[in-house]
Amino acid sequence: MAQLDAGQIVERNYLIDNAKITLIFFVVLGHCLELTHNSPMLHTLYLVLYCFHMPMFVLISGMLAKTEISRQEIFRQVSSLLVPLLVFEVLYEVVEVVRFGKLSHYLLNLQPYWLLWFLWGLFFWKLLLPIISCFRFPVIFSLVIAVAAGYSTQIGYFLGLSRTLTFLPFFVLGHALKPVFFQRLQKYHWLFFATIILLAVAILGYFNNIDVRWFYGSLSYAALGVDQWYAGCIRLCIYAFSFVMGVAVISLLPNKPLKITAYGERTLYVYIWHGFFILFIKAIGLVDAVSTLGEFGTLIILLLLSMLITIVPASKMLGSITDKVLFLPVRKALLENSRKYD
After folding, report:
1. Cα 128 to the chain's mean position, in Å?
2. Is 35 exposed, middle or buried (0-12, 13-18, 19+ CB in 10 A)?
3. Which of 176, 211, 190, 199 is nearest to 245 (CA)?
4. How far, in Å, CA of 188 to CA of 200, rounded?
5. d(CA 309, CA 50)
6. Torsion-angle region of residue 183: left (phi > 0), alpha (psi -120 to 50) or beta?
7. Are 124 and 155 in contact (CB under 8 A)?
8. What are the pLDDT digits (tens) for 259-277?
9. Rounded-to-integer distance, Cα 137 and Cα 178, Å
10. Which of 6, 101, 185, 253 has its CA 20 to 30 A from that of 107?
């Protein structure tokens, strides 16, 4: 997409589109669950979602990425990623000033605002891919970079650098695997993947006290409380766990058009807009209010709320308004005429 995936394809890949809309729903649900407190079941679900939803988003983005680094391609990525990043950085900062009367700590510390780190990271992954692809073993090379970065206490939230490096291997691996990878896996019986998911959920349920920040990829090993030499091995184990879990989830999705499939083409809008919904329900204390319904009642409300927050920004109308009212004027004001690169 000109959104969260990279590159144009002649025919829609229904499995990939179904995966993208499913994953963005999980992203929204995860942010809703982040507002809950003191619920072992909801916390386990939170861990389950965070262990795979962003790694799989990055993996799919890599599957659809190009290795060319022409000026035309760079222009396209600036237009489709950096312009939305700039626009929504401003919008989120406006909300911060209105609510709290000051700029956010993200801007003051030169960090992408909250969830916008992904757009920043995706832009750099696409720039790095042609370089990393020159190496004989690009996936291993990216793993070395990501694991080594965790030992540095100087790499953190600044410019989203830690997350960019931490999730880099998934992007490079996705490019190596290609979308056909998931289609080939679907020849296996669904019970195989369901068993993997159940085992993964059971493991995370048992180790419920694991520090979820390991899945964020934004902190050094020392900041996570592990400064021994084997800290990198923990990250590698998490990579493997996230990959197996995420692949199992996506492999269970249908490879055919559904009513929600078309929304998979517009996940960028869900991603950049849903933060406002989360900030709103947090400000009015909605999650705290529904928490009185108990764990299952809260979960049902959050599932319905997450569906709504996913569907509304993914509508054609909001996407069109976002492009025409927000992105197009900025592109015209800041960027050269794209026809120069045709």
Report:
1. 18
2. middle
3. 199
4. 18
5. 18
6. alpha
7. no
8. 889 898 899 999 999 999 9
9. 16
10. 6
Phi-psi region of 5 (alpha: psi -120 to 50; beta: other; left: phi over 0): beta
* pLDDT digits 0-9 by tens, 245-259: 999 999 999 999 888
Q: Decide: 82 and 124 in contact? Cβ < 8 Å.
A: no
Distance (Å, rounded) from C-alpha 310 to C-alpha 313? Answer: 6
Query: The tokens 């406002």 sit on which residue?
Result: 276
| Cβ–Cβ < 8 Å for 65, 6 | yes
Say if residues 212 and 50 touch (Cβ distance below 8 Å). yes
| Contact between residue 22 and residue 253 where contact means Cβ atoms under 8 Å apart | yes
Cβ-defined contacts of 275-280 (< 8 Å, 24+): 275/31, 275/92, 275/114, 275/115, 276/91, 276/92, 276/95, 277/28, 277/309, 278/28, 278/31, 278/32, 278/35, 278/309, 279/95, 279/99
Length of the chain: 342
Please report which confidence band the pLDDT of residue 3 belongs to, taking 50, 70 and 90 as the band edges: very low
pLDDT: is 65 or 7 the higher one? 65
- The DSSP annotation for 94-111 comes to HHHHHHHSS--HHHHTT-
